[in-house]
Design goal:
Layout (H helix, E strand, L loop, with lengths): L5 E3 L5 E8 L2 H7 L2 H13 L2 E2 H8 L3 H13 L4 E7 L4 E4 L4 E3 L9 H32 L2 H6 L1 E8 L2 H24 L38 E11 L6 E4 L2
Parallel strand pairs: 2-6
Antiparallel strand pairs: 1-2, 3-5, 4-5, 7-8, 8-9
Length: 244
């Protein structure tokens, strides 16, 4: 049975969007590259049929239809009410996020591998979309779209507590903005836009790296080590800002 989405974070704080925690059976059902791709297409383009998904993914409608049914068994997708026929069913992805990694799932080698597969496929799809934009955006999009888009990176030292607080605040702020946009209805000239947000500790780096060999204490991020690099409008130039 699928786990019911929750709006409560592990630390008890309220989340602005429902998050479904994977149980082992649901995670294993999702652990197939084509099923992850189907979820991505439904998120990106909205409701689709098995035929339209087949065209988007270069697969047969029989294959996408089979995987849609398997996803539906675990509530990853659902039929669109009042749309379609017995011969042509429309499918959508329920609103909300899914949590692939958790301490419960990490207890089993099988679920660990399933989680890695799902995460790898999601990340592969995200990187493919970004690479396509970086390679072809300037030749394909109008200037207003290029000026509106951004790809940015910032580096800062922080504690796990600070990272958690920062992540929750950014997700909540982003969610509110996106809900306002969705609530306003589709505007003239709108097109699919993908928003990425990553915040994670860098692995394989000594704790004292970036502090001149001195281990700093306290629970505050080291503002003096902040550096931000931002590449806008698909131009080859970048700017770096260091703050004291």
């Amino acid at each position: 049975m699928a786990t019911k989405p929750s709006t409560q974070a592990p630390d008890g704080q309220e989340l602005p969007f429902p998050v479904r925690k994977m149980d082992p059976a649901s995670l294993k059902a999702l652990a197939h590259p084509l099923r992850v791709q189907i979820l991505e297409m439904l998120s990106r383009y909205g409701a689709q049929t098995a035929c339209s998904l087949g065209e988007l993914l270069g697969e047969s409608s029989g294959s996408t239809s089979y995987h849609l049914r398997q996803l539906a068994k675990h509530d990853f997708v659902r039929e669109v009410e009042g749309k379609g026929t017995a011969r042509e069913r429309w499918w959508e992805r329920p609103r909300g996020a899914i949590e692939v990694s958790s301490p419960e799932l990490a207890s089993s080698p099988a679920t660990q591998e399933a989680a890695r597969l799902v995460n790898r496929e999601f990340e592969h799809r995200r990187q493919a979309v970004l690479a396509d934009f970086m390679a072809h955006g300037a030749d394909t999009l109008d200037r207003e779209w290029l000026e509106a888009a951004t790809v940015s990176t910032a580096n800062v030292r922080m504690s796990a507590e600070q990272l958690g607080a920062y992540t929750r605040a950014m997700e909540a702020y982003s969610y509110r903005l996106l809900e306002d946009i969705r609530g306003a209805g589709e505007q003239e000239g709108a097109r699919p836009v993908q928003v990425h947000f990553n915040a994670f500790p860098i692995l394989g780096v000594p704790a004292s790296a970036g502090t001149g060999g001195r281990r700093k204490t306290g629970n505050t991020a080291q503002a003096e080590s902040i550096s931000a690099q931002q590449s806008k409008n698909h131009e080859s130039t970048s700017s770096e800002r260091k703050e004291p």
